[in-house]
Amino acid sequence: xxxxxxxxxxxxxxxxxxxxxxxxxxxxxxxxxxxxxxxxxxxxxxxxxxxxxxxxxxxxxxxxxxxxxxxxxxxxxxxxxxxxxxxxxxxxxxxxxxxxxxxxxxxxxxxxxxxxxxxxxxxxxxxxxxxxxxxxxxxxxxxxxxxxxxxxxxxxxxxxxxxxxxxxxxxxxxxxxxxxxxxxxxxxxxxxxxxxxxxxxxxxxxxxxxxxxxxxxxxxxxxxxxxxxxxxxxxxxxxxx
Length: 241
Hints:
The chain is mainly α and 241 residues long. The protein has helices at residues 3-28, 37-49, 56-82, 88-109, 118-141, 152-166, 174-202, 208-220, 226-231.
């Protein structure tokens, strides 16, 4: 697979995952955004103004949990890269561990009451931390891809490019840029829809879908066996870092 197609599949998979996890967290945990920092600022403001709203404590704690996920990913990447090793697989593994914790705590907390108890709160914090790690990984190791968890910038760039295309702008990079941004946007939207249906059918067990996506990405990033690398010295696998 070419590096271009490999990167496109990474972007599609991670954007679908982000839309899926954010939507499931919103539906399951009293309107909590796990990947949407802007939305959580709004929820924090609304909760402070009206303490009677559901899930106030969870929404207040989600932002520092997201920050903790970013910090964990950053520290992990620094440690791995100081050893001279590719950091993408460990960063994806960190996301997977946090996401599985989100699912396990959510399942243990089911059925939820009118307010999130300790297990539901732990689920939300682990979900926010997982998406913090997701965002940090995208920024640190996948900067050549379009953002996979925040779609405002993607929509803005797509509209700009479509307007330029309609007016016949002389921009040789226009087509490639549209492809770069539109696929993650479509995947994110598909993840949102899929999560809504999956949660209503399977509850927190529906988080197995993004877990499987991360497992697939981990397998795809596995280094080629030494024998295969020696047999194809002219086509080494380029690690994303």
